[in-house]
Amino acid sequence: MVFVLDPAKANSTGPVCQLKSFAINGYTRKGDMNIGGIFSLHSGEATSQIPFTELRDIALCKKFTFKVYERLLAMIFTTQEIQKDPKLLPNITLGYVIYDSCTTAAGVLEGAMKLLTGQKKAVPNYQCNTFSSAVAVIGETYSSTSIPMARLLGVYKFPQISYGASVTTLSDKNQFPSFLRTFPSGLYQSIGIAHFILHFGWMWVGLLSDSNDYGLQGSLTVKEELVKAGACIAFFETIPAVYSEAKIQHISETIRKSSANVIVIYSIDTDLYPVMEVTARNNVSGKVWVASNDWAQSYLFAKNEFLRTLQGTLGFVVRRGNMPGFNKFIYRLNPYINPDDIFLKIFWELVFDCKLQIVDNINKNLTKESKICKGDEKLEGMKMDFFKLDDLRPTYNVYNAIYAVAHALHDMISSGMEIKPEVDKIPQSLCSESCSAGYRKAPQTGQPICCFSCVMCFQGEISNQTDSIECMKCPEDGWPNERQNKCIKKVIEFLSYEEPLGITLTTVSVFSALATAIIIAIFLKYHQTPVVKANNRELSYLLLFSLMLCFLCSLIFIGCPTHVTCMLQRGSFGIIFTLSISCVLAKTIVVVLAFNANKPNSNIRKFWGPRLPKILVMLCTAVQVIIFVSWLIISPPFQDENTTSITGRIIMECNEGSPVAFWFMLSYMGILATVSLVVAFLSRKLPDSFNEAKFITFSMVVFVSVWMSFIPAYLSTKGKYMVALEIFAILSSGAGLLFCIFVPKCYIILFRPEMNTRYNLMGKGVFKNGKD
Fold it and tell me: In this predicted structure, what is the pLDDT of residue 137?
């Protein structure tokens, strides 16, 4: 349907639109199963003058096209032939529903909608019948009308078999999922035309094409192939979709003035007619026209005024085929036998130049001067130049298309598949598909608001409905699920006493503390022995006590942290470990001073005294206490909920408060440990049967190695594993001190009591020479 300006009402207050309908009447003969057909039975008149008051589509719906009617007859003939085959579709009546498209896009769409809905008045997405009015549709003739039809039918996955559309785009199953054809793709014709031109050595060629997909795609492929082979294009002109006298004159002048004698025309005959009309009027001759299949056998060659211009035309045509019995079928045609066939009525009146009286003996087109058909007219014996029954080409493709549908139906029935219409799904008309939950709409630059991209929500955000404009952040204790369409509760993570890692570390801590307590008990039992007394007995007890506290303080790190435990963790760890290292440092200095004080003329005796180690331990530990108290005053450690380090988890951890204070505390411990290591290393070779400096050196090597490895590992670990790493460092470094310093003494006390004498410890006994 289109709106056309009515000249009769031009004097009214404004332009009035009059609704005008296409001549899209149909011919139906229903069966158990029906095949649809849409044919361009009417086309434009042989004139280039189309009034501006009338749309071009309306002007095209005037002239009856005999060559297309031949193809319609082939459809009727083939369905009747199939009906007689006892094996192909037995016990099934095959019918047909045929519409005239008038060679217009509106016409094919109207016919397609009628086939989809099964009603004379097409209502989109509504089907009255249990079954569709057709199981497939044959058509259309041209690519320009097949494309819109294929787009509509593709929405419903409705099979379409074309017998003439050759445009390459129709092979794209993403755009046209249900389009099939018995006609080769235009790609092969374009390549063939290019090779044909190159075969004759024509290297200077003009190109003329339709402005539709058929002409543009085909001619562009020809151009690419020619240019690739080294040929040159003299001109490339396009016939306008809407008639323009100036443009047609320009094309004709370009052809006339061009030195190119070979011109490839990729067009349908109705579009080419105005160009040929002007070209013939300008007396253009001597050109070699290379015709595409759509006009190679056109009615243009039957017009005398075009013969001089088109002489020497070379063209590509589709293959011919044989349809036994088709001639006899046509000869038996009679409008009195088939009064419902409106197309046969039109055909009959044109062929015999008379008017039929078969509908209630009334024909509205009859006048007093009209010649009435007698009823005894016969086609047999007539010279039918409008039919080419001995050269069936596109008509044979219709024949094959009908048989393809019949064989498909036969296979479906044989396999037991029930033929049902697809479920009337409302087609979408959207610039962009909806964004599902978990995504948000992102506008596209330079595009309307309806056109957008779907972007996944950022980490930590969700959208819980379709087409969300923006995403929402989850609360602090929530995290998006995998689809990012809802928030789920975050898993709270900390090093727990109940989990295997926590149980293991707790067991090791308690065992280490018990081992230290056992050594203290051994020392207390053998309190008066030389081994216990050696190198300041009070420092040994203080070191053992501090090591036991170190092992036990690791338990504060396990469990859900609080503000109190966070301060206790850092305070106990820093102060107790400083106390331990201070004791080791004092013991090392005692060894050095004791050796040097016994030398003759030594001045060290002035500074030597029993209070010196205690003062050294107190001073070193006091510095760490001052650091920790300052830390508590400035920015103390506190419980923190880390929601960003690990996705979907809340890490309950202790925040240092002041990282500077934390690293200052570690640095101070590192300095003490380094000094102890250096002093012990330098004094390791002092003469003594039991030189404790050697064992202190080993213990400090272990201590420093553990904490040097701890720092990079600590910085790269997160969550409960960072806490576990800290506990491991505390336990392993404490165990190193305990094992290297005190296990050798326990060994002598328990298993070599004969060595536990002052005489042997001073290096004067037989044990120095390894004798019993």
Answer: 95
